[in-house]
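Q: Here's a chain of 316 amino acids. Please give me its 3D structure as tokens.
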Amino acid sequence: MQENNNKLITVIIPIYNEYEGIPFLVDSLNEFFGQNSQLNAEVIFVNDGSRDNSVLRLGEMKHEKYRAKVISFSRNFGSHAALRAGISQASGEYICFNYADLQDPLELILQMKCLMEEGNDIIWAHRESTKTSWGEKMFSKSYAYLMKKFAFKNFPEKGFDIVMFNKKVAAEVNKNVEANSSIFLQILGMGFRQANISYKKRERKTGVSKWTMSKKIKLFIDSFVAFSYAPIRFVTIVGIAFFFVGMLWTIYIIVRKIFFHDLAAGWPALMSILMIGFGVTNISLGIIAEYLWRTLDASRKRQVFIIDEIKELNKP
């Protein structure tokens, strides 16, 4: 058991324009690891193309209770790319994610570590509740429902932001660094031994959330196109449904014309049919185009992220 307690834990924290929150973040890390001195910790900050002086401020802070280094990208590649870069440079036996706003409490590290020591490969931290707007809650619920229905039966109803896993899982992630994909769903679908805990998300202390609607929409599309055949199946089902509706409508028009002669022809009905038909066609083509674009993007084998610099912030 003593050997397990001394295993190095790597905490990966993406950084994007977090200058104001850096002091709170570093002070919280020092306090947490100072109070839990039995933890052997490495913190990797991944600078995802910040346009402020976040990296400079990180270098000015004292990282006293843990090993620390910062990975800087050549430009902004996104939070999932930042997490993948952190995994590629992680030295820990256990690896977990957290974020600069610390809405997800650092105490989760202790809870997840205990479950890891029971023989699990992956530990998920599920949100119990969040103080978000009605629109954000609806998006999260809809996303979780659709993912559970069409992609992963074990997808949690309230989603997840935090995960801890071992080097075996990290090695699999590093073997296949996927572009336009979700690292969480990639790990979820690996099938290793998994467990979960729940927690209450905290309010953000500083700054504003970088989780914009455009990023949510991209995640939604990436998740389904990368991990589910549901969109293609949807195109097929809609096509079949409209075929039968069209056949029934044609029969109805013929019957009314032959026996009743009371069906007036007019451009409104024609326009409605054309608009619905073209709308379905365009949606179908858009879904197919998403798959084709991702196939082309994968064939180019462009880098998911480019590391500009890796800097040690203190000595191990």
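Q: Can you summarize the key feature?
A: The chain is about 50% helix and 15% strand.
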